[in-house]
Amino acid sequence: MNAPKSIWTWIPSLYFIEGIPYVIVMTISVMLFKRLGDNNASIALYTSMLYLPWVAQPLWMHPVERLTSARWRICAMQLAISFTLAAMAWTVRDGGTTAGLMVCFGVVAFACAVHENASDNLYAQVLTPREQGLFAGTRSKLYYIALIVGQGITLMAAGGLETYFRNIRQAWYIVFAIMAFSIMACAMYHLLTLPRQQPAESPVSNIPPLPLRKKGMICAFLFIILFVLPKALTARLNLLFFIDHSSQGGLGLSLTQIGFAHGTIGIIGLSVGSIIANNLVGRDGLRKWLWPCALVFTLPQLLYVYICWMHITHFGLICTFIFIEQFGYGFGLSAYMYFMLRFSQGRHERYHYTICAALMALGMMLPGMLSGWLQTQLGYPTFYMVAAASGVVTLAVTFILYRQIKQFN
Q1: Could you give the angle at the alpha carbon of 65 between the alpha carbons of 64 and 68, nearest 5°?
Q2: Are 365 and 52 in contact (CB under 8 A)?
Q3: What residues contact 239, with CB distance under 8 A and at least 6 apart?
Q4: 370 or 204, which is more confident
Q5: How far does the chain reach from its first CA to its final CA, in angstroms?
Q6: 277 versus 217: which is more confidently predicted?
Q7: Preceding peptide of 63 cis, ω within 30°
Q8: Are 361 and 225 in contact (CB under 8 A)?
Q9: 265-308 pLDDT, tens per residue?
Q10: 204 or 178: whose pLDDT is higher?
C-alpha cells in the first residue's frame, strides 16, 4: 500500500518538527535553568507553568482556527519558534535573566500548542480516511525520533560544547542558534510543500459552547486529572535528580550522560511501552488492560526510591532503570490516552478531546509546580517515597473508572 508521493514530501517533516518545540519547553528549559544556577523549587514552578497554553486550549482553539488556515498557522508558528529561539540564543549569551528566558519559553510553548493543533487540522482536512490510517504509525514514529533528537542528541551536544568551550552560556548559545536555523529551514520548506486544500466546512463550525455535559463526566475527569499524579510530581525532578551533585542527593550525571540515558534509552523505552500497550488495548479492549497498565505505570516509581536509598552510581544500571520507568510510563499512558479518545467519541468529538487534553495538562501542571518545593523540603529519598506513594491515588481513580468502563470496550 503506497501513499501519493506528494504526501511523503510534508508528513514526515511536519510531525518530526512538531516534537522539537515540545522538548524545548518541557526538557531543555529545565536543564538550561539548572545549568544557569536556579534552584529546584523555582525551576519546577516556572517550567510547570509552561503547560498553560495546553490547559487553556479549549478557550483559544475556536477563535484561532476561525482566523486563519491550518497551513498558515503551521508556517507562522514555525517562524515564531525560530525567531524566539534566536532571541533566546542572544539572551543566554548576553547574561539574560530567568524572567527574560521564561518569556521566550512561554512564546515557544504557545506556538507549540497552536502548531500541534494546526498540524492535526491539516492532517484531517487533506488526507482521506484510508491515508490517515496509512500514516498513523508514521506520525508516532517520527514524533519519537524527534524526542530522541531533542532530548538525546541536543543534551549530548550541549554537554560536549560546555566541555569544549568551558563556558555554559556560549555552549547553549550555539545550541539555540542551531535549533533556530533548523526550524527556520523547516518553515521555508513547508511554505513550499504543505498542501493548500481547505475543507468546505470550517472544522470548528460544530464546536459546542462551554460547559461540556457528557455521561460519566465527573468520573472521567477525576481519572484524567489524577491518574498522572506520580509522573506529574517526578517529570521535572527526575531531570534535576540526574544532574544534581551527589552532595545534594543527586546522581551527578553530565549533560552527555543524561542525553544518552534519559533522552535516548528512556525514549526508546517509552516508545516500546506505548507500542505494546496500544496493540494489547486495541486487541482486547480497555477493561482487560486497565489494571495492568495502571500498575505498570505506578510501580516503576519505586526504582527511584531504590536508587536513592542504595546510592546506585553504576551508569549501566541507571540506564536500565530509566528504560524500565519510561517503558511503564509509555505503557500506562497508552491506556490513558485510549480512554480519552473513547470518552470523547460522539458529537463534537474533537472539542471534547481537547477538553480532556487540557485536563491532562492541568493534572501535570499543578503537582509539577509544587514538586520542586516539596523536594527541597524533604530531600530526594523522602520525596521519591512520597511520589511513589502518590501512586495510590492513581490506583484509586483506576478502581473507580474500572467499575464503569464497560461502555469503552
Answers
A1: 90
A2: yes
A3: 27, 30, 31, 34, 258, 262
A4: 370
A5: 29
A6: 277
A7: no
A8: no
A9: 999 999 999 999 988 988 888 888 999 999 999 999 999 999 99
A10: 178
The burial class, CB within 10 Å (0-12 / 13-18 / 19+), for 97 is exposed
Domain architecture of the chain: domains with CATH: 11-194 (1.20.1250.20), 213-409 (1.20.1250.20)
Per-residue cell: 152: 538525546
* pLDDT at res. 3: 53
CA distance 89 to 32: 12
Residues 236, 368 contacting (CB under 8 angstroms): yes
pLDDT-based confidence at residue 138 (cuts at 50, 70, 90): confident
Q: In the structure, what pLDDT confidence band is assigned to residue 124 with cuts at 50, 70 and 90?
A: confident
- The pLDDT of residue 206 is above 60: no
Q: In the 3-class helix/strand/coil scheme, how is the chain assigned residue by residue? A: CCCCHHHHCCHHHHHHHHHHHHHHHHHHHHHHHHHCCCCHHHHHHHHHHHHHHHHCHHHHHHHHHHHCCHHHHHHHHHHHHHHHHHHHHHHHHCCCCHHHHHHHHHHHHHHHHHHHHHHHHHHHHHCCHHHHHHHHHHHHHHHHHHHHHHHHHHHHHHHHHHHHHCCHHHHHHHHHHHHHHHHHHHHHHHHHHCCCCCCCCCCCCCCCCCCCCCCCHHHHHHHHHHCCHHHHHHHHHHHHHHHCCHHHCCCCCCHHHHHHHHHHHHHHHHHHHHHHHHHHHHHHCHHHHHHHHHHHHHHHHHHHHHHHHHCCCCHHHHHHHHHHHHHHHHHHHHHHHHHHHHHHCCCCHHHHHHHHHHHHHHHHHHHHHHHHHHHHHHCHHHHHHHHHHCHHHHHHHHHHHHCCCHHHC
How far apart, in whole angstroms, are the C-alpha atoms of residue 154 and residue 173? Answer: 12
Distance CA 350, CA 340 (A): 11
Supply the pLDDT for residue 211: 53
Give the pLDDT band (50/70/90) at residue 409: very low
134 CB-side CA count, 13 A: 14
